[in-house]
Amino acid sequence: MVELYSSQLDQVFHALADPTRRAMLADLRDGERSVGELAAPHRISLAAASKHIKTLERAGLLRRTVIGRTHRCAIDPAPLAEADAWLNRYSAFWTERLDALETLLQADGPPSPPSDSGKTPR
Questions:
Q1: 20 to 30 A Cα–Cα from 109, which one of 13, 29, 38, 93?
Q2: Cα separation values, 83 from 15, 19, 100, 115, 116, Å
């Protein structure tokens, strides 16, 4: 259940709040990347990239393996599924509300045009 993992869910949303980290995740959709490859499009230092990657790791969104001196990163989509499940509850809420509004509006019929009473002709 989503509520049991609220701490991880908080970390996922924190990680996704930054555009650089979202872009890094998007880059990882195409396969593994090194830290340098993830940093390159953003013109950030390897130290800054490493901080972003650690945030993604803490959220469980990224797995890092070390091969010699190279750190390879891969996406782990499982926490995204949990965040999606949490968001979908609100999607259902708004869908119900909008459906109810549509039903109400259809029951009233089309709006009548404003009357010209009280206006003086030019």
A1: 93
A2: 12, 17, 26, 50, 53
pLDDT digits (tens, 9 = 90+) for 44-60: 999 999 999 999 999 99
Tokens of 18: 């930054």
Which tens digits make up the pLDDT trace of 64-112? 999 999 999 999 999 999 899 888 888 878 888 888 888 888 887 666 6
Q: b/e string for 32-43 if b means 16 or more Cβ within 10 A?
A: ebebebbbeeee
User: Which are the contacts of 69, defined by CB distance < 8 A and separation ≥ 6?
Assistant: none
Residue indicated by tokens 């949303």: 13
- Are 29 and 75 in contact by the 8 Å Cβ rule? The answer is yes
CATH 3.30.420.40 fits 2-78, yes or no: no
